[in-house]
Amino acid sequence: MNTCSSIGIGLAGFGTVGSGVWNTLERTGDLITERTGGAVALHIAKILVRDVAKVRASTSAVDPALLTTDWRQLIEDPAVDIVVELIGGTTDAFEIVAAALKAKKPVVTGNKALLAERGVELFALSREMETPIHFEAAVAGGIPIIRTVQDSFIGNQIQSFSGIINGTSNYILGRMTDAGLTFDVALAEAQALGYAEADPTLDVNGWDAAHKALLLSTLAYGFSIDPAEIHVSGIEQVRPADIHFAKSLGYVVKLLAVIRQKADGAVELRVQPSFIAQTHILASVHGVFNAVAVHGDAAGESLFYGRGAGQDPTASSVVADLVEAARGLRQASGHRGFLPYRESGRILPVEETATAYYVRFDVTDRPGVVAEIARVLADHRIGISGTHSPVNPSNPDAEFVDMVFLLHTCPFGKLQTALSEIAALDCINSAPVVFRIENLG
Amino acid sequence: MNTCSSIGIGLAGFGTVGSGVWNTLERTGDLITERTGGAVALHIAKILVRDVAKVRASTSAVDPALLTTDWRQLIEDPAVDIVVELIGGTTDAFEIVAAALKAKKPVVTGNKALLAERGVELFALSREMETPIHFEAAVAGGIPIIRTVQDSFIGNQIQSFSGIINGTSNYILGRMTDAGLTFDVALAEAQALGYAEADPTLDVNGWDAAHKALLLSTLAYGFSIDPAEIHVSGIEQVRPADIHFAKSLGYVVKLLAVIRQKADGAVELRVQPSFIAQTHILASVHGVFNAVAVHGDAAGESLFYGRGAGQDPTASSVVADLVEAARGLRQASGHRGFLPYRESGRILPVEETATAYYVRFDVTDRPGVVAEIARVLADHRIGISGTHSPVNPSNPDAEFVDMVFLLHTCPFGKLQTALSEIAALDCINSAPVVFRIENLG
User: B residues 198-237 near A, CB within 8 Å?
Assistant: First the structure.
């Protein structure tokens, strides 16, 4: 519906999500106009691509006149009212977003790394130019968690988030749990199915989830956090034995992002593989799905579940943001996008964060090993709730074995000190592996 | 923060939710102003109560000058910019909402019965007066499902909703499942705990859920539905034996609201006790919690879970709507509230809705009973996937027993015809009880 009053979109990036946005607008553009009582009509006015010939070869739906390889054209074209950044990365994407804001063109982006790493500069520019950045697509694909926190929970102090916000990791852990696969085999399967990138580093090392958690925290508490200040660990160290052990205790292993505000206002933010109770609703989040549990002081416990990635779900969020941005263009002044409202805040050092733990040691099995480890833990006044060494029936007297300890809640710093002492014992063969046992209430 | 530019709220009703709104604004009013970059400050300017003396006796927090027993004062007071209707019912509440709209004062309401029954008139008035009605609190208390459907999923054709949207019923069914209670005992317990009203009729007969389902359908498909056109049944007929039987087959019994758009555009909308797979995420919705699963063509499968009622969760939704309404007051023209965008649409007659079924017959047990029932079903070409009569070990030859049939998917109309024939058999002692077996995909 390219009427005179239709809003022109400049699409930077025409890959999976970009073409999903195109398709979604083709399919539902008229419905959007109908649903907004005629207030919003959208059309794509310009598309930034890397290779015009390639796009022309792959689709006949797109008018070649819309294509450009020069991002400045996207910004400068008077037909472009809103800029959608979907090229990824933090360098060119930064240039494009900054230039769009300077030209007072609202930005819609799904780039979590960009906002987590350079959000301070970009939100400052957003404020200065009175031009919003919308980023629903940056966290949990098709789940409208950004708008929920920003608008629906505006009257809540957000006490905590617990999220499964990396679909790739969740898929891999699920296959390790259900089919007994090793990490490597499950990862290869995820890659074959298109659930993991050729380079899966940011998915499996926890940083993709961490970028999303940083954004959720900024939304809830109003200030940006330096990624260097938070504790992130991924799922590379999870073994089938850990999953088996978790199951036997009534837990499942999930890569969990935890954000909590403490009584003194400090924010606890960490991402790591965690044991969570099988009965908790987050344990029912399977495959590539994402879910975020939110606890607000008024709303109480809530959970938002859906597809965390993929062409259409992410396009759904981009399109919702486009409608929001289009409505904002009709406003006289100010903007309704998010702005950090606090200069800074305190991050709880990871050493002060406290949970129960599961620790796996690779030990040389000889009499006295348990006593030696237990002695060090006792010296640090860390309680043991259980210890276990799975016997290999085909080799019950194996020399090298896994020895597992379940520990009572204590500060992580205290645990680290104890573990470094234990690692120095000559019966210990490699660095201990630690998972949190998360009490989600 | 009662600054000059602060928005004045007229609160109609100061019961549970009304005082929750007061408390929430006391607690987070400054935070709201901070989070909106100073754009929104709210204060309560007038409160409609039934008995001024009673309020004065129960709280010293409220300035008596704010109280009135005349709703016209609430509308006419120039200090009132937005009217919040929380008195319930469909008569006085209608007068107040209509008068507020006529005075061009945006309305926030949590009154699902009012909007389900008189929404056509009120939304027409809303359009005419260019003044929005916000109703997040009307469906599923603290879960922001209204805004999600309206804004976040605006680029989606909504294919279906499946919802557990009556906490009282869910609590009762849960206690029947977990503790083997009868319906009457579980209901009495729910009343004792304050989870059910003294008059629980609308909760247990399905109509509270149906009112919410009507609103969700109107949001998704743009037209209002006459409550007389939909099929609603409640949980009064559920017995422990049904729950036990469901469990043994891998199901749980839930009061489910199902809304679906068929390929020809017709809307299927029904509320009834249903068997759903224990592995489906909706099966994990326990106690008084609510959840709505939404399937959009772009977003895919999503689920929104949280508290469906209660003082603070409902107040959280009212306050979010107040902020939205306050922002709207600053707009030059038009409104961002919901307006039905279609005159009418087709409702799929319940006779044409098709699922699998669980049917319980109260029979006189004599040879030939199963054959007689099976004969009638066969005549109507309704397939049987199983039949079962629980033997009472202490009285294996009991004369009157429950006989359960599991039936393959067929149109409900066909089932009804067959069941009326079966009911006429002389071995059948009372009307058969039917639950849907819902395939939630």
Answer: 222
